[in-house]
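Incident log, support desk, overnight shift.

02:14 A customer reports that sequence design results differ from what the structure should imply. Their input is reproduced verbatim below. On-call engineer (initials T.W.) acknowledged and began investigating.
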């Protein structure tokens, strides 16, 4: 075994994507961030005051 868990995961992602690990991780991050940001935005809408 060489490296640690994170190095092994990175090597696997890099191998699967053909050397495009960073763009793949950025895409995953974007796909996770958009629904989270929408949920936060929807929960913080102000209600009209009577």
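02:41 Re-run completed on a clean worker. Output:
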């Amino acid at each position: 075994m060489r490296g640690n868990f994170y190095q092994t995961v990175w090597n696997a992602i890099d191998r699967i994507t053909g050397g495009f690990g960073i763009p793949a991780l950025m895409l995953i991050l974007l796909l996770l961030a958009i629904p989270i940001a929408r949920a936060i935005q929807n929960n913080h809408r102000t209600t009209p005051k009577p």
